[in-house]
């Protein structure tokens, strides 16, 4: 036991390093392929309200959903989180991004539809201190903490701290919408902006929320028998409901953008409400999650299965050509006299000492239509000047350049295995009556197979994840899945999809490795010795 | 030579030379004739050219000059796989990816024998080396001795007339080596195969061979039957290389037919047989085997010359006693005596007189 502990202590630094810099980042990246917390975190109220909506009717959801959306979106807009949500949902339905962005800009306007008449009814509603006095009280600590947690999840920030405000339990009971909106405002003003809540004018959403509460007849009757702080102003507002807008929030939203009345948009939001989603993975295999279930994408949008197949096929072709080209070179390396072999070895290793980018760019110079190879072929008369070979910006270019770049990874393991095959085996074979070819094929070759295995695994796995070379010489026909992953990581910023594609690639490689182990046996792979 | 003179030559090396770099010769003017069925050993220190000779015979090296004949036909231009010579390699060279049976079937397969015939021959060959039940195993699963047997069986399975063995017992421990030495010679004689055996172990060479060719410096120094080689070495190198040997240096004083008188550098006079010395006054190196030295005055001729000796060390070795003496200024003079009941045990510091029969003392070249 003590021995084990000591051993563990010895490897601990490396272990920690590997875990922290390799395993944890990979796992967290892979987790992004199913993670979908942004939707339930940004619009938590809406997600809950939406769960009761049946999208199959084709009707937009109930007013309640829009009210929640307004409260959620308003604070998201304050935290500038609503555009992120728009971007996320835009992966699933185009147009959602701009819908969220434009609506975000007019949330104030919607609130003012209620703010203006309310302030006209009772000027007290203009005063921040009046609102503070009316909303404050006792017994609302639990409610405050609940809103604080939601706010923290939405804004990705630590919202802890003293708010200087405790909502009144009575008001929460009587004006539930207003209490939510005002508490959100108080949290934001006190903790994010560092202001004193009582001195600040409330958000427009607070007025909208009071409007929501006033549509409830129970609330109105409760107000009339209420005698706490701000009772007169509330009673005045309740008495003059007819001065408030005669429409609800559904209409307010649809007026801003008619897409808010579109059941499809809501169906998408509902579909992606859970905090985990198979959506990215389905996307990676050209399927999509629709309200009617999982469906194949239309033919013209299917790209990933093609890319996966192409990546595998081309990695196999590259591995094959590396074996064909590398085997004789490795054989020469292992069998030539020392002096010649070392010169050859330098030639093999030379590419290793050259930047990958330089090598690939050199291939660009060689392969292009006005490039060295075409010029020579035209000059020799093998190819007509009019139809020069297209060697680049297609699969051919990728195969040629990658075979060259990965060749050392085939030659070196092959060489190290061949070096261990004593020449006496072939001599023995010949003395037993085998011709040179039979001695090679029956005796030498089988013993070099572990080297081929090791080289193939190396080359294949490197090829399957290669990205710079296909990017430069691959054009559109010669790009790999990794180019797509890189695109989603750095350009489209759809990390979830990139993570899903990466996970699939990882699983495919592990699967192939497993097959290889079953068929060839990983014990038969030698990297040397 | 003596043994095979009546038989027809089967393997012949005629004026064979070999050079790897075109300047220095590794094999210099090699002439060798072997009759059919002979077991010949090429013995020599490393770098003496013995393995090169074997490789030329097998066809893996080509002779720079000269002719190698097998059954009267020059094989200089015949590639190794058409020579039909069985060979056992130093590290056995059993194909690791094939089973024992597959290893043995390999030479039959490339000769395109039928499956049934192959199996029959493989079985017979394995039984011959008592490895009949190991056909399904891989070489790595066998011990060194077992691999050795399989390698032997593989070299014999296609019934070659000539088998070459390149230090085949080098990797085995002493006991196993002695057992295999016996088995190999037995098998070779039983099957009547001509065998060329290369080794640097003189005991192996002496116990196994019909004749031994002692190689040094690219030449055969002596080619003779083991007993002649040991008892009648023809030059200093052979005398030194084979067995243990005492040497004393001096000048030829007198040659009388089959005997000569040698004056050692210290002035002492001894009798010897002149081997490759011809003139009086020539420098010579005299060679006496330790077991032929006598210190019991009664057993020597009356007129034999004797030398004074001082005992330096006495070693009890069980079956024999080994005594180191200082003789004529030579501190490394060894005598061996049998552990017989009446044998005298010498003590260090003791002064004795030693002598020998003139025919046991050979005056050889001084080089």
Automatic annotation (TrEMBL), chain B:
<keyword id="KW-0813">Transport</keyword>
<dbReference type="GO" id="GO:0016887">
    <property type="term" value="F:ATP hydrolysis activity"/>
</dbReference>
<dbReference type="InterPro" id="IPR027417">
    <property type="entry name" value="P-loop_NTPase"/>
</dbReference>
<dbReference type="GO" id="GO:0043190">
    <property type="term" value="C:ATP-binding cassette (ABC) transporter complex"/>
</dbReference>
<dbReference type="InterPro" id="IPR050093">
    <property type="entry name" value="ABC_SmlMolc_Importer"/>
</dbReference>
<comment type="subunit">
    <text>The complex is composed of two ATP-binding proteins (PotA), two transmembrane proteins (PotB and PotC) and a solute-binding protein (PotD).</text>
</comment>
<dbReference type="InterPro" id="IPR003439">
    <property type="entry name" value="ABC_transporter-like_ATP-bd"/>
</dbReference>
<dbReference type="InterPro" id="IPR008995">
    <property type="entry name" value="Mo/tungstate-bd_C_term_dom"/>
</dbReference>
<dbReference type="GO" id="GO:0015417">
    <property type="term" value="F:ABC-type polyamine transporter activity"/>
</dbReference>
<dbReference type="InterPro" id="IPR005893">
    <property type="entry name" value="PotA-like"/>
</dbReference>
<dbReference type="Pfam" id="PF00005">
    <property type="entry name" value="ABC_tran"/>
</dbReference>
<dbReference type="InterPro" id="IPR003593">
    <property type="entry name" value="AAA+_ATPase"/>
</dbReference>
<keyword id="KW-0547">Nucleotide-binding</keyword>
<protein>
    <recommendedName>
        <fullName>Spermidine/putrescine import ATP-binding protein PotA</fullName>
        <ecNumber>7.6.2.11</ecNumber>
    </recommendedName>
</protein>
<comment type="function">
    <text>Part of the ABC transporter complex PotABCD involved in spermidine/putrescine import. Responsible for energy coupling to the transport system.</text>
</comment>
<keyword id="KW-0472">Membrane</keyword>
<keyword id="KW-0067">ATP-binding</keyword>
<comment type="similarity">
    <text>Belongs to the ABC transporter superfamily. Spermidine/putrescine importer (TC 3.A.1.11.1) family.</text>
</comment>
<keyword id="KW-1278">Translocase</keyword>
<dbReference type="InterPro" id="IPR017871">
    <property type="entry name" value="ABC_transporter-like_CS"/>
</dbReference>
<dbReference type="Pfam" id="PF08402">
    <property type="entry name" value="TOBE_2"/>
</dbReference>
<feature type="domain" description="ABC transporter">
    <location>
        <begin position="11"/>
        <end position="242"/>
    </location>
</feature>
<keyword id="KW-1003">Cell membrane</keyword>
<dbReference type="InterPro" id="IPR013611">
    <property type="entry name" value="Transp-assoc_OB_typ2"/>
</dbReference>
<dbReference type="GO" id="GO:0005524">
    <property type="term" value="F:ATP binding"/>
</dbReference>
């Amino acid at each position: 036991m003590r021995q084990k502990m000591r051993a563990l202590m010895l490897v601990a630094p490396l272990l920690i390093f590997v875990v922290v810099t390799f395993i944890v980042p990979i796992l967290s990246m892979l987790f992004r392929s199913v993670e979908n917390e942004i939707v339930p975190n940004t619009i938590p109220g809406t997600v809950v309200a939406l769960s009761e909506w049946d999208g199959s009717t084709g009707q937009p959801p109930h007013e309640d959903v829009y009210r929640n959306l307004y409260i959620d979106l308003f604070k998201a807009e304050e935290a500038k989180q609503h555009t992120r949500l728009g971007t996320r949902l835009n992966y699933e339905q185009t147009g959602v991004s701009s819908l969220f962005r434009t609506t975000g800009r007019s949330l104030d306007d919607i609130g003012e539809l209620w703010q203006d008449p309310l302030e006209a009814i009772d000027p007290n509603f203009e005063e921040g201190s009046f609102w503070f006095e009316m909303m404050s009280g006792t017994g609302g600590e639990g409610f405050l903490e609940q809103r604080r947690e939601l706010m923290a999840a939405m804004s990705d920030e630590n919202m802890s701290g003293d708010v200087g405000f405790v909502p009144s339990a009575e008001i929460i009971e009587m004006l539930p919408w207003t209490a939510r909106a005002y508490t959100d405002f108080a949290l934001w003003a006190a903790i994010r902006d560092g202001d004193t809540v009582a001195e600040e004018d409330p958000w427009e959403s607070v007025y909208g929320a009071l409007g929501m509460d006033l549509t409830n007849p129970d609330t109105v009757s409760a107000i009339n028998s209420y005698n706490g702080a701000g009772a007169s102003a509330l009673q005045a507002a309740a008495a003059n409901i007819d001065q408030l807008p005669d429409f609800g929030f559904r209409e307010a939203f649809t007026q801003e953008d008619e897409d808010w009345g579109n059941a499809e948009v809501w169906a998408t939001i509902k579909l992606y409400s859970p905090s985990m989603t198979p959506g990215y993975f389905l996307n990676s295999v050209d399927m999509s999650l629709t309200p009617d279930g999982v469906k194949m994408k239309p033919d013209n949008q299917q790209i990933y299965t093609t890319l996966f197949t192409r990546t595998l096929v081309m990695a196999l072709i590259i591995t094959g050509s590396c074996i064909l080209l590398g085997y004789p070179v490795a054989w020469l390396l292992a069998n030539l006299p020392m002096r010649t072999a070392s010169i050859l070895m330098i030639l093999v290793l030379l590419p290793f000492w050259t930047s990958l980018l330089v090598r690939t760019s050199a291939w660009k110079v060689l392969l292009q239509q006005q490039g060295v190879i075409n010029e020579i072929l035209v000059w020799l008369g093998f190819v007509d000047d009019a139809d020069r070979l297209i060697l680049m910006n297609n699969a051919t270019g990728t195969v040629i350049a990658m075979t060259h770049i990965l060749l050392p990874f085939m030659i070196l393991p092959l060489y190290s295995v061949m070096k261990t095959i004593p020449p006496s085996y072939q001599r023995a074979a010949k003395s037993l009556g085998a011709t040179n070819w039979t001695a090679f094929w029956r005796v030498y070759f089988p013993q070099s197979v572990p080297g081929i295995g090791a080289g193939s695994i190396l080359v294949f796995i490197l090829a399957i994840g290669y990205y710079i070379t296909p990017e430069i010489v691959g054009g559109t026909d010669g790009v790999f899945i990794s180019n797509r992953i890189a695109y989603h990581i750095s350009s489209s910023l759809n990390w979830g999809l990139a993570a899903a594609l990466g996970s699939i690639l990882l699983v495919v490689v592990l699967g192939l490795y497993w097959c290889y182990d079953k068929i060839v046996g990983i014990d038969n792979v030698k990297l040397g010795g | 030579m003596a043994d095979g003179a009546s038989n027809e030559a089967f393997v012949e090396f005629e004026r064979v030379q070999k050079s790897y770099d075109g300047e220095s010769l590794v094999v210099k003017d090699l002439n060798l004739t072997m009759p059919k069925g002979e077991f010949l050993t090429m013995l020599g220190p490393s770098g003496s050219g013995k393995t090169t000779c074997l490789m030329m015979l097998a066809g893996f090296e080509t002779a720079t000059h000269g002719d190698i004949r097998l059954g009267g036909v020059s094989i200089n231009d015949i590639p190794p796989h058409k020579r039909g010579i069985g060979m056992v390699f130093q590290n056995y060279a059993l194909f690791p990816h094939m089973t024992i049976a597959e290893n043995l079937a390999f030479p039959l397969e490339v000769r395109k024998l039928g499956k049934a015939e192959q199996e029959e021959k493989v079985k017979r060959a394995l039984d011959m080396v008592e490895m009949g039940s190991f056909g399904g195993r891989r070489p790595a699963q066998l011990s060194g001795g077992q691999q050795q047997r399989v390698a032997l069986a593989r070299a014999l399975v296609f019934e070659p007339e000539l088998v070459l063995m390149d230090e085949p017992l080098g990797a085995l421990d002493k006991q196993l080596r002695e057992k295999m030495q016996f088995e190999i010679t037995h098998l070779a004689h039983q099957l009547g195969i001509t065998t060329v055996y290369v080794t640097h172990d003189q005991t192996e060479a002496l116990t196994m061979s019909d004749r031994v060719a002692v190689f040094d410096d690219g030449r055969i120094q002596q080619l003779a039957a083991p007993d002649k080689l040991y008892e009648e070495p023809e030059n200093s190198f052979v005398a030194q290389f084979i067995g243990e040997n005492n040497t004393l240096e001096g000048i030829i004083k007198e040659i009388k037919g089959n005997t000569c008188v040698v004056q050692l550098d210290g002035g002492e006079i001894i009798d010897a047989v002149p081997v490759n010395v011809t003139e009086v006054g020539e420098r010579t190196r005299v060679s006496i085997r330790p077991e032929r030295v006598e210190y019991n005055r009664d057993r020597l001729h009356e007129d034999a010359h004797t030398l004074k000796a001082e005992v330096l060390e006495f070693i009890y070795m069980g079956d024999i006693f080994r005594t180191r003496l200082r003789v004529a200024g030579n501190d490394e003079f060894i005598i061996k005596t049998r552990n017989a009941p009446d044998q005298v045990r010498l003590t260090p510091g003791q002064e004795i007189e030693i002598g020998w029969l003139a025919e046991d003392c050979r005056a050889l070249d001084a080089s």
